[in-house]
Structure formats: C-alpha cells, structure tokens
Queue: 2 jobs
Job 1
Amino acid sequence: MNLDPMTASERPALNLPPVDFRIRMLDGKEMIFDPVRGKYVRLTPEEWVRQHFVHYLIHDRGAPRGLVAVEPVFPYEGMPRRADVIVHDRTGTPLLMVECKAPGVAIGQAVFDQVGRYNTVVRAKYLVVTNGLTHYCWVTDRARGTHRFLDAIPPYEAL
C-alpha cells in the first residue's frame, strides 16, 4: 500500500466520473473527506481511487450510502484484514467487494488472488479489482466453484 501523500498535481484523472471532493490540509498532510466514514482521511494514491470508486458506486450504480462500508475489518487466518469497499444488501449480506490499488499499480494475478482469499471470508457474489484506470468485475457461483467476468459493474438493484 502506498502511503505517500499526493499533491494536487499528482492526482491523476481516473477512468471514473470526475468528483469535486472536499480536500484540505491538516498538520501538513492532505486529507480527503470520506462521506461513508463521515471523516477526513489521509489522501494517498490508493485513497484517491477508493473515494472515486465509492462515489461511482453510490451515484452511478445506485448503491445506498448506508449499505456501503469503507475499509471494514474482518478476520482472515486469525489476523484482522480490511476490504477496501463492501456493498451489502438490505439484510446486511455482502453483495460486492472491491479491492482498490493506486493508479500506478498494475492489476495482476496477485491482486486477483488477494481478493479471492478475502472472499473466502466475506463471501460476496460480485468482486471488483481496480486501480482507477482499469476495472475488472466478475460474479462468482460458490456452489459450482466458477466465476464469470462481466463487461460492466451492474447497478445495485441488479446485484
């Protein structure tokens, strides 16, 4: 995870709708407001992607803000882990899990393996990996042990 702060000139345009974020400096660190967590968080390249994707899920895919969790903690092999984003159904069951990487991080097999491992616990039907520039979405069928890549991320009501 890249924890280096970003400056305004380092914020790349992403392959997601543009957003007018609330960004401010705090103790010499650039912070971005996360409307799901309701607080300012440190603006890193990965957070830049995460906030864009959260905005996309809520405003473009129709996910209810109250059913979106950002960086929820779950146990994996006895250790606490964090998913970048989990979208739940109205009963609280995870529907979609998103793994975000910084724009400069290539989406390779290691990223797919990571989200697959995490999903053994989360058990979301839909999975997404993104670096803000390239997005992959697939649907899993746990009963058959199969997955199918999708051309687009479905709207919330179709999940």
Note: The mean pLDDT is 93.
Job 2
Amino acid sequence: MLPRKRVGHPQDLDALLVMLASAESHFVNGAIITADDGFAL
C-alpha cells in the first residue's frame, strides 16, 4: 500500500531538515509538514 513500495528511513528526511535549517526557510512559519511519501493523497 506504500507509494514507493518501501518503508521510509531517517535519511529520507535529510533534504527537508537541511531546507528548514537554511535561510531559505525564513518564510515557513507554523507549518505542519507531513512526511508520508504522498500516502495522504
């Protein structure tokens, strides 16, 4: 039932964490970011 046919691993969140820690995320405020590989679609 998983879109990618595999369970996620912690390193799958690396790009998201780097983006949130960077200056590019200065406009992200109070967001809930769901890391579910598109399962909620």
Note: The longest helix spans residues 14-21.
